[in-house]
Fold:
Amino acid sequence: MKKILITGATGQIGSELTPVLRQKFGGENVIAAGHKREPDREILGSGPYFALDVRDKQTLQALVADNGVDTVFHLASLLSAVAEEHPQRAWDINMNGLTNILEIAREYRCAVFFPSSIAAFGPLTPPDNTPQDTIQHPNTMYGITKVAGELLSDYYHHRFGVDTRGVRFPGLISHKALPGGGTTDYAVHIFYAALTNKHYDCFLKRDTKLDMMYMPDAIQAAIQIMESDSKQLTHRNGYNITAMSFAPEQLAAEIKKHIPHFTISYTIDPIRQSIAESWPRHIDDSTARDEWQWAPQYNLSATVKDMLDKLSHRIKTNREVV
Ligand code: VAH
Structure:
């Protein structure tokens, strides 16, 4: 990796991956592209940024060609809940965006990181210790675009030799950028609510167990798989990875250890509840651990402690929350 393009650079993953890659490879060598006209100061001030719609193949191609990009982290995507509200737009952005990236990668010999998700599984998938290779029959538009994305990425590798790689991310917890329109967003919003008014009204049922991961582990996974020896990767796209699995009531109990008066209530959002119930409760990530030594660092207690430390500092210093 020498010259990197990150699409979706202003999103929940992109806003943390961009500074880490710029630290590692040099600001000028990491081009950030996002749908926002005005990203946050950190991204604007540390390297090149371009406003970009990933459906605009011409602009995307010019960015890759003019900058000699050799690796693309393609993060631009509509997430699960908003994709159920706007399924046709989700297919357009998620699939035509990916097709543009893969076609340009084929022409300019770029490696491509594609983030799949546990959403690539569905109600027929074994929900506990979900195997790497099993039934994938998602009943959400987001999940359909993730399965299709995994298959298309595999195809471009086998048919055209494009170096495509990817993981199935669980719900991601982060303190830099708020997630936009996901089903697991409760696991981020709860921290802001706990610190600002010691109460959170959760849109998922108290016992809805889902795989989760703290963002530093997610960033490490994305970089580690792209730096792995290609010969080690038999699965290539869509590696199961997770760090922990918990339900809202367990997360609330962990937060209460730090904020004793914190309380949680439940006002269920039927759409996001039904999406969550179609996903596995806990996936088996032994294949990623075997093939490219995946190893998360943050469990639930370490995540809660770091999130509360970082966010309370942010709220105290009143720094922008992107
Ligand atoms: C979502 N955060 O909720 C994403 C993620 C597994 C969930 O893909 O849509």
Remarks:
- DSSP finds twelve helices and 14 strands in the chain.
- The two ends are 28 Å apart (CA to CA).
- The longest helix spans residues 87-108.
- Residues 4-170+214-240 form a domain with the Rossmann fold fold (CATH 3.40.50.720).
